[in-house]
Amino acid sequence: MAQKRQENFYDGWLYHLFVDPALRKARKLVRRQVKSKSSLIDIGCGTGELVLSLSDSCTELVGVEASHRMWAYAHERVRDLGLRNVRFIFASGEKLADFPSASFDYATACMVLHEMEAGHRLPVLREMQRLAHTLILVDYRVPPPVNFVATTCRFIERLAGSHHYQNYLSFTESGGLMALLGRLNLAVKREVLFFNRCLHLVEAKSIAAN
Fold it and tell me: Domain with 164 in it: what CATH number?
């Protein structure tokens, strides 16, 4: 059963209208790392934009979303498009017992981990690690660079609400993606900096899979 997260006023079509376009570069970078005819599960898929952008390349795509408004929006989009290799499930990314271990080639999380409460991040990453040998993560780079774009990003995170902003602060103050991966049996294979070095894509694999 899904562990519903707090709904935000921008979930759904507002997110698709204003945020999804800003993440176009992130989606292109993820696509470059994903081999054709592979399978992928996207945790915190939001409006489904990343999953849908891969629908012409991957054989199986699953988006997981704990916001009912986001999930409903993504589900309606894939229904309207009639795609048979894509599905969206309303669930928490911490426990996806319906999927056996190593069900997918890739597990992704794009601009998701900084939104979570601190205690949920490692369980989500462990579940991603169980489901796929290769993880592709996109989020804020920590420590952030000193530039106008980084200042703007911090301001936008503050606008998203006090709860969201506190999660963002805990993510940055605890070391971000690299600190989280350092606590797991994962080896970083690739890091790509972008968006004026404010964001980074990190590809990591289970050490046992190397």
Answer: 3.40.50.150
Residue 5 lies in a domain: no
- Parallel/antiparallel/unpaired status of strands 199-206 and 186-194: antiparallel
Indicate left, alpha or beta for 13 from its phi (over 0: left) and psi (-120 to 50: alpha).
alpha
Sign for the CA dihedral angle at 66, 28, 150, 20 comes to: negative
Number of compact structural domains in the chain: 1
Give the pLDDT confidence of 26-76 residue by residue, as tens digits.
Answer: 999 999 999 999 999 999 999 999 999 999 999 999 999 999 988 999 999
Q: Which two tokens stand for residue 200?
A: 């980074």
Segment 187-204, tens digit of pLDDT: 999 999 999 999 999 999
Is the Cβ–Cβ distance between 46 and 66 less than 8 Å?
Answer: no
- CB burial of residue 42 (10 Å; 0-12, 13-18, 19+): buried
Q: How far apart are CA 70 and CA 206, in angstroms?
A: 30
Neighbours of 177 (CB within 10 A): 26
What's the domain range around 194? 13-209
Residue with tokens 């940055």: 172
End-to-end CA distance of the chain: give it in Å, rounded: 33
In a domain, 93, yes or no: yes
Residue 4 lies in a domain: no
